[in-house]
Amino acid sequence: MNFKEGMLREGSLKGKNILITGGGTGLGKAMGEYFLELGANLVITSRKLDVLQETANEMMSQKGGKVLPLACDVREISQVEAMWSAAIAEFGQIHVVLNNAAGNFISPTERLSVNAFNTVLDIVLKGTSQVTLTAGKFWIAQKQPGVFLNIVTTYAWTGSGYVVPSAAAKAGVLALTRSLAVEWAKYGIRSNAIAPGPFPTEGAWSRLLPGDLVKKFDPAKKVPVGRVGEHQELANLAAYMVSDFSAYVNGEVITIDGGEWLKGAGE
Ligand code: HXC
């Protein structure tokens, strides 16, 4: 066995219906593929239905299970509520919400327009809050348990220049995660977060580090273990966090970054 292999045993997520925002590409897709392998069904959402449809077909042919693609801009509450209703109509119940949709720019803050700043806040903090509120209200009304897993970054607590709207929004998502872990535990709802370090994806890396920048700022150089992450490593952690094996983990954020953020602090 090694870190590039799946960690949980077959069927560990059997019977779970898992909603992944931003599930059509990148890390959302990678986590979803492993959830399917472990027996889950998926709802994947993003703004691009054609991309989602293609991903859903690919996932179902390679991993089995059922994948429902639903277009949804998490910034629009009417779209979030319609998406949730369609997911419930198809599956009857959603057991896990993985809040993964995000938006980000690397830019000196003074060069961002107010609209650019608000766009990131809206996708990350407002979008996550709207999906969370919609799911949480439903679970509480139905007296059904649920699990939230939210994707944040370590600069939610360290802060970071040049990604200020993202840092502010992710700090908000972390506070949301911890606060609901306390308030909604009585309803059987758990809330946790994962803070991934550098995991290469086509979309985010080409957008955030275009052209030669990805070579110039080789992300592996900043990581004490000397490499970037493998998607399966993140998928293993996410699968554990949404499974019943982590039933006693609540209000936690788990960093998976090879020690990257501590290197910045300690060297
Ligand atoms: C500065 C920018 C910009 C950029 C757009 N804007 N791109 N400003 N730098 N690179 C401005 C626009 O000019 C506009 O402001 C406002 O932002 C809204 O832009 P739109 O294109 O209308 O927005 P929209 O179509 O809603 O697209 C949202 C998006 C897009 C965030 C711009 O990139 C997106 O959807 N990204 C999703 C995927 C993503 O970003 N993933 C990265 C997450 S990874 P004006 O004033 O002109 O109207 C991550 C990990 C952390 O966060 C990594 C740490 C380094």
What does this structure look like?
This protein is of the alpha/beta class and 267 residues long. The chain has a single domain, classed as Rossmann fold. Helix content is 47%, strand content 14%. It contains ten helices and seven strands. It has a seven-stranded parallel sheet, sandwiched between helices. α2 links the parallel β2 and β3. α3 runs parallel beside α4. The site of hexanoyl-coenzyme A has 16 residues, from α4 and α7.
Based on Cα principal axes, name the global outline.
globular
- The tally of beta strands, per DSSP, is 7
Order of helices and strands: EHEHEHEHEHHEHHHEH
Estimate what percentage of residues fall within beta strands.
5-15%
- Oligomer type: single chain
Report the CATH topology name.
Rossmann fold
**The first-level CATH class name:** Alpha Beta
Structural domain tally:
1
Helix content range: 40-55%
Q: How many angstroms does the end-to-end distance come to?
A: 33 Å
List low-confidence stretches. Answer: none
Q: In the CATH hierarchy, what is the architecture at level 2?
A: 3-Layer(aba) Sandwich
Computed structural class? alpha/beta
CATH superfamily: NAD(P)-binding Rossmann-like Domain
Strand order of the largest sheet: 3-2-1-4-5-6-7
| Main beta-sheet annotation | 7 strands, parallel
Residue-averaged pLDDT:
95
Keywords: NADP, Oxidoreductase
Organism: Algoriphagus aquaeductus
Pfam family, one: adh_short_C2
GO molecular function, one term: 2,4-dienoyl-CoA reductase (NADPH) activity
